[in-house]
User: Which sequence fits this backbone?
């Protein structure tokens, strides 16, 4: 009733999954979703480009592919390509897909030891793993309770901190690394992002990271940190270039990404569930979950051939759905269209490559911190008894400790170092899953007493039934 008084009748279409709101109402909401995710979408590509030592032109191609493939995978999730019986290719839910930070630590390790082509080979294997998880989601789900997924997410956040600090200092290898100018620009950016997050309202709070980057970018111009040479040489329109970087398969890289894809496939259940409960007041159906996760895996296989780094559901956009209740797929389709348009214009992608590392560091350190805190929230959803604290503590200790101790695995084969010694996420995940399976569950004394009471009552009832039966037979 209140919604009809505050808005015109057409706006009710915004709150229907298949609603058809007008352009004037849908476009601002679509832009809101783009603003919320575009920085997170392109930053992993920029980070991987720097680690792999790609040229400016190749960096632009990687960023372009990130935008284009994020748009296309979002559209497939919104509008399933196949709807037959119990199977569908796509969730049919209002979600936004984008390049995920969850893979960045492992992608950095692979790019540093091998090259970008090896990332895409491992991504194909990981996508197949995720698709298999989607098919058997009900059988596999029990291996990944919130305690384990939270531990993995926590490890991801912790492992990204060195990247943020190196960027704030100007980017490792930069001749001005650690200069006061870099730190000043980084802290100005961070202060703006933090201030808007806590004191901003509406679009100012929602777009805090984007606004912080814009302000930091302007400040960096006065210090002469921005080079526009790549922009002038970029074309106005260009289609993605299939297999531009090549594809290579390397066993240890495939194992590392395969484990991450399996974990993120399970984590996607949380995003799909949060979307439906927050916007549709229901839990997702098995068909929606299966279709969404299988599509997540298969779309990443296709992304690898077109230069798109691993994608995943974007939790910040899920949060927008929960807060606004806007679920019309037309809004999300428009957001995907804007991303697609931006990806087809290399001029736009090239502008993103001019953002100084110190600006990116100041903006993303808060993102990485929020990832860690999300992990802690998931962990503490379970009781923090001795068993669970042991699982989390050992998983994080081994994951972070082995990767931070230089040459800790020096005498092992090279593949062991790639899988376990470069990114803490994989080792933390394997340790957490293993401990969760083998450590005994501790029963709550209250639960034990309740169980004994129930058994005692059932025994008395059974005895009474036997006595009644005997009397009846007599």
Assistant:
């Amino acid at each position: 009733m209140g919604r009809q008084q505050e808005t015109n009748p057409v706006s009710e279409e915004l709150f229907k999954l298949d609603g058809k709101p007008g352009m004037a109402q849908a476009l601002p909401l679509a832009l809101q979703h783009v603003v919320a995710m575009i920085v997170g979408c392109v930053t992993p590509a920029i980070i991987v480009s720097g680690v792999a030592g790609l040229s400016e032109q190749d960096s632009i191609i990687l960023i372009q592919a990130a935008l284009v493939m994020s748009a296309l995978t979002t559209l497939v999730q919104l509008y399933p390509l196949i709807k037959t019986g119990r199977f569908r290719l796509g969730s049919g839910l209002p979600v936004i897909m984008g390049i995920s930070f969850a893979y960045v630590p492992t992608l950095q390790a692979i790019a540093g030891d091998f090259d970008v082509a090896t990332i895409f080979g491992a991504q194909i294997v990981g996508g197949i793993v995720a698709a298999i998880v989607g098919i058997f989601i009900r059988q596999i789900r029990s291996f990944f309770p919130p305690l384990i997924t939270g531990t993995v997410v926590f490890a991801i956040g912790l492992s990204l901190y060195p990247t943020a600090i190196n960027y704030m200092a100007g980017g490792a290898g930069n001749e001005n690394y650690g200069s006061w100018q870099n730190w000043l620009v980084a802290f100005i950016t961070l202060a703006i992002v933090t201030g808007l997050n806590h004191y901003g309202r509406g679009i100012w709070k929602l777009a805090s990271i984007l606004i912080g980057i814009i302000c930091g970018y302007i400040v960096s111009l006065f210090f002469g940190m921005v080079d526009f040479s790549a922009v002038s040489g970029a074309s106005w329109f260009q289609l993605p270039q299939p297999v531009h970087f090549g594809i290579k398969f390397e066993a240890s890289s495939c194992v590392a990404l395969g484990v991450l894809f399996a974990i993120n496939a399970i984590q996607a259940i949380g995003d799909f569930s949060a979307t439906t409960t927050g916007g549709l007041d229901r839990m997702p159906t098995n068909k929606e979950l299966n279709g969404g996760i299988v599509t997540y895996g298969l779309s990443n296989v296709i992304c690898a051939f077109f230069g798109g780094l691993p994608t995943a559901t974007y939790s910040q956009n899920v949060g927008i759905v929960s807060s606004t209740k806007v679920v019309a797929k037309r809004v999300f389709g428009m957001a995907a269209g804007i991303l697609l348009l931006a990806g087809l214009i290399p001029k736009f992608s090239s502008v993103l490559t001019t953002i100084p590392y110190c600006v990116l560091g100041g903006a993303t350190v808060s993102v990485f911190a929020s990832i860690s805190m999300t992990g802690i929230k998931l962990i503490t959803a379970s009781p923090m008894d001795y068993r669970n604290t042991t699982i989390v503590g050992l998983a994080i200790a081994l994951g972070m400790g082995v990767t931070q101790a230089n040459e800790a695995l020096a005498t092992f084969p090279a593949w062991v170092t790639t899988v376990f010694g470069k990114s803490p996420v994989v080792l933390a995940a394997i340790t957490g899953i293993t401990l969760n399976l083998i450590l005994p569950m501790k029963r709550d004394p209250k639960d034990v007493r309740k169980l004994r009471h129930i058994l005692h009552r059932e025994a008395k009832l059974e005895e009474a039934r036997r006595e009644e039966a005997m009397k009846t037979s007599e």
About this structure: The two ends are 69 Å apart (CA to CA).
